[in-house]
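Sequence in, structure out. Go.
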Amino acid sequence: MKKVLVTGGTVFVSRYIAEYYVAKGYDVYVLNRNSREQSKGVKLIQADRFALGGVLHSYCFDFVIDTAYTAEGIDRLIDALGYYGDYIFISSSAVYPEYETQPFKEDAVLAENKFWGKYGTDKIKAEKTLLRREPSAYVLRPPYLYGQMNNVYREAFVFDCALRDRCFYLPKNGEMKLQFFHVEDLCRFVDVLLMKKPQHHIFNVGNLNAISIQQWVEMCYSVVGKEAIVKNVYDDIEQRKYFSFYDYEYYLDVSKQHELMPNEKDLYKGLKESFMWYKDNSDNVNKKSYFEFIDSTLL
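Output:
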């Protein structure tokens, strides 16, 4: 039985990863402070990753999946680990500056992105620290992740609009495109890396094709069983006040990923799975005050 360490393991991506490998029959350990409910089947290592001491020295892991946000988080974990095999780091497409040529390739310049700010620059530093200390590690840079357990108010906001039979306020002409990646596909690609051990160690990951925000909204309504009625907003209003995404369209070149894993989850099917989870877990999503702003400003 393979042993895997997942840092975090209580919220969205890391929680989904932990449960994915439990379902595969792996011996799954999660490292967190035990401030949230733990998933069934995991083994908790209760600790603060910035004060690990010797808590990990006696463990041996076949692989580690880390979602660290900072270089210090990487350093502290590597210092504390005993034996481990492969190291997978979930980074972000926020490492690419918005002014660089798109689609972003893995060897593009990394710098601050004005939309993501410190989050992106911290991920850059974390990547550099990891690859300096562990050159054989794999780094994954996803676009917008979605799927079951998503606690970010993205597709869930559109589901709420559909459930309440509300008109949807869509930024501008609705043609801005978004690139998504289902969290299960993220896990499946980790499996591919562990099996094939490619020589390339940094991968953009994501769906091959982007989708317009209007298509995405209509699809979200459809999985709820409703038809979207949209109203376009052309006023000079910051769209993040009433919409789930920045006014920022970007594309990742995911050709290297698709050479290794050519199939991906159908977006409609993935959103349907998200909605089925959300119906029973709406309290686990961090909701924002979009409705209040819409009702006070846009109506």
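Check: The two ends are 57 Å apart (CA to CA). The longest strand covers residues 83-90.
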